Inverse folding.
């Protein structure tokens, strides 16, 4: 493997790690906002929607953790393209959930 390829590989891995850290950090903020909604609400429909988002956040955090683990295994497995696809899929789901959550917040706040 050439020096350029190793540096490119390392840079891409670092970028993925930063993206996953950002997604996890944002998800924690969403959970805090959701907690505020739940603590100030007794509407069953809103609470059901809040539970849906809480479940989404849990699943996404689990996915982020799995991807972080896989990032650490990349040098051993050489499955960089596969991991790239998984991270792109996680990012897409994160963005869709964020958009839906912001719409939810706009309706309840």
């Amino acid at each position: 493997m050439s020096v350029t390829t190793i540096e490119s590989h390392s840079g891409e891995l670092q970028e993925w790690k930063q993206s996953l850290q950002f997604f996890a950090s944002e998800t924690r903020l969403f959970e805090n906002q959701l907690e505020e909604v739940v603590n100030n609400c007794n509407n069953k429909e809103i609470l059901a929607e809040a539970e849906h988002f809480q479940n989404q956040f849990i699943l996404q955090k689990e996915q982020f953790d799995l991807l972080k683990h896989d990032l650490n295994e990349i040098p051993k497995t050489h499955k960089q393209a596969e991991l790239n696809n998984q991270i792109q899929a996680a990012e897409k789901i994160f963005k869709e959930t964020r958009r839906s959550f912001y719409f939810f917040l706009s309706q309840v706040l």
Summary: Residues 1-7 have pLDDT under 50 and may be disordered. The chain has one domain: 3-108. Residues 26 and 33 are 11 Å apart (CA to CA). The longest helix spans residues 3-39.
